[in-house]
Design a protein that fits this description.
The complex is a heterodimer.
Chain A lengths: L22 H5 L4 H38 L6 E5 H7 L1 E5 L6 E8 L2 E6 L10 E3 L4 E4 L4 E4 L5 E3 L8 E7 L2 E8 L4
Antiparallel strand pairs in A: 1-10, 2-3, 3-4, 4-9, 5-6, 6-7, 7-8, 9-10
Chain B lengths: L6 H34 L6 H26 L4
The chains are: A alpha+beta, B mainly alpha.
């Protein structure tokens, strides 16, 4: 059906008038400027939906942080001093089985422990004490062994620090300290 | 009586609303990544202010969308 030209769209993409348009365009004429409005309106709706998703994400983080604040850590035996000095690296899980950690003996009497998950994408870091670092093989990230801070690669946050307590020749894990710098 | 807007005027308002919503969503994205980074690093001091700021952006975006839909109605 061909309508009167006064009812037709004000312009077509090729700039030609209605009689010069192909048959399909004459049958289904589109008001191009109006169509442009609809496209932008739909896009703004999508953006507002995205805005809602971001706000929901923020609320989720806030709710999770409230739960985390009430969490307390238990005191757990990791290894004896003799064992740590013999092996130099002791693997353990703390505070639960989902959190692998490493106890490092940097020198006799000097111990540090970190969460083993890389702060970039949670791959397991590999200790290289002869080079004084912990290396993440996934994206070649490196952390200094002495402080757990990132020295190379994509990680930006230090490894979680496991606080230790040495008592009567036994090393205990007492908590986890998350750090941004 | 409210004035009837021309197509060109509506187009300008449309463009303004579009860019404002886009700017606010970009701000929210930045806010989310910054908050997530701080939260994973154990810094929870920014978590609630970040959530409130993001929620305010959402409210403003919804208001802008409402204005945009109102503009679409005949005679507006």
């Amino acid at each position: 059906m061909i309508r009167n030209e006064s009812e037709q769209p004000r312009e077509f993409p090729d700039g030609q008038r209605l009689p010069d348009q192909p048959a399909w365009q004459q049958d289904f004429p589109t008001d191009v400027p109006e169509d442009d409005h609809v496209a932008r309106r739909e896009f703004v709706k999508f953006l507002v939906l995205t805005s809602g998703a971001f706000a929901a994400g923020q609320c989720w983080i806030a709710a999770d942080s409230t739960l985390r604040e009430s969490k307390s850590y238990s005191r757990m035996k990791v290894a004896t001093v003799a064992e740590a000095e013999a092996k130099r690296v002791v693997e353990f899980h703390y505070p639960d089985n989902d959190e692998p950690c490493l106890l490092l003996c940097l020198e006799p009497g000097r111990y540090v422990a970190y969460g083993q998950k890389c702060s970039h994408l949670a791959c397991a870091v590999v200790p290289k004490l002869d080079q004084g670092k912990l290396h993440c093989p996934c994206h070649n990230g490196s952390f200094e062994a002495a402080g757990g801070r990132p020295i190379a690669g994509p990680p930006r946050r230090p490894l979680p620090l496991v606080t230790l307590d040495v008592q009567d020749g036994v090393i205990f894990a007492t908590g986890v300290e998350l750090r941004t710098v | 009586m409210k004035p009837i807007l021309t197509r060109r005027q509506k187009d300008t308002i449309f463009t303004g609303i579009f860019w404002m919503v886009l700017l606010l969503v970009t701000l929210q994205l930045w806010l989310l990544t910054a908050t997530m980074n701080a939260y994973l690093g154990g810094d929870t001091s920014v978590v609630w202010p970040g959530a409130i700021a993001s929620f305010v952006c959402l409210i403003f975006n919804l208001w802008l969308l409402r204005r945009l839909l109102y503009l679409q109605r005949a005679g507006a």
